[in-house]
Amino acid sequence: MGQSLAGVDLKGLTVKQLREALKAHGLSTSGKKAELLALLQASTGSAAGPAGGASSEGRPELLTDEEVAGLRVFELGNLLVQRGLPRIGKKAVLVERLRAALAAERSKAAEELSPGTEEGSGGADFKVGDHVEAQWDADDKWHPAVVTSVSDDGSVEVRGKTARKVTAVERSNVRRSEKLSLARLQVGQKFRGRVQRMISAGAFVDIGADRNGLVRMSRMAEQHVTYGQDLVVLGQEVDVWVYRIPDNGRLGLSMIEYKPSPARDPVQSFVAASSEEWFDGYVRYAAPHGYYVDVKAHDGVSVAQGFLNKGASKLPEVGSTVSVRVTRVVQESGTLYLSMLSYKRA
Prior knowledge:
InterPro entries: NA-bd_OB-fold (IPR012340), Ribos_protein_bS1-like (IPR050437), S1_domain (IPR003029), SAP_dom (IPR003034), SAP_dom_sf (IPR036361). The chain is of the alpha+beta class. It folds into 5 domains: about 15-40, no CATH class; about 65-105; about 130-175, SH3 type barrels; about 180-255, CATH 2.40.50.140; about 265-340, CATH 2.40.50.140. It has helices spanning about 15-25, 35-45, 65-70, 75-80, 90-105, and strands at about 130-135, 145-150, 155-160, 165-170, 175, 190-200, 200-205, 215, 235-245, 250-255, 280-285, 290-295, 305-310, 320-330, 335-340. A 5-stranded antiparallel β-sheet has the order 4-3-2-1-5, with no helix packed on it. Helix 1 (about 15-25) packs parallel to helix 2, helix 2 (about 35-45) packs parallel to helix 4 (about 75-80) and helix 4 packs parallel to helix 5 (about 90-105). It starts with 14 loop residues before the first helix and ends in a 7-residue tail after the last strand. The relative contact order is 0.08.
């Protein structure tokens, strides 16, 4: 079905037609007819009562907790997909996930963070590392640049992205770029982003920053994910949290919420840790060969994701608090390898 679906009664389509339409939208084509219909309705914005997730004014319907509990699994999945949330898991998990999303919408706590700057700032509050546009030629042309230093006398030093030279300019000749600088991001910030690229390690998501961030497979959902394509598709909007901003200029994101932290890269809090040190951990979910655990640093705030191999643990319960040792830090993925067993000297 290559034609537009505008005005088409989706309920009247056959299973084959539904799968063709889903394939054209780059979506999964597996499942029963009701599930295919729900997914297609979510992707096209077609409302179908409560499961369609939209009111007559086009706003999302804010169902009560009782109404959410009464929805069928495919209806829950439909509403979660519309909000860019995972649709995998048992019904109880989907119900709680949707309830949390609706509660956030009601309280407006899930407001998107704007990549721009508030009006009235005058462009004066610049930081080293900010991506800006600056004027330094007589032709009044605005050049893309990066702030290298900020002085109290009203001048800003910038390095042109093309000229690659450092130039001192007045603040009035510097304005913010539309892109959000990594220097201004903080761990735990929430953004609404769009999936730009899929790789075997996960999904690259555009949050309006000067580079896309990677959501690794282990941080896509609170359960094991075998294929990222089963959870998200290109162009899909998703809620993400900043997981880490390492010094290598990369950006680590998570579709699992991580709380704010003063550290730009919480993983670094564990690099110098002794194998004999114990840390508090929270067992987030189980995987085929072990458990993913949120490990809290000794500062009591910074948290990094760790993997606990079944052979290096006493088989904890999901949702329990455990004491773990960090046996290895994988800088590339931002993952800690853990053990619950006592340290044995060689």
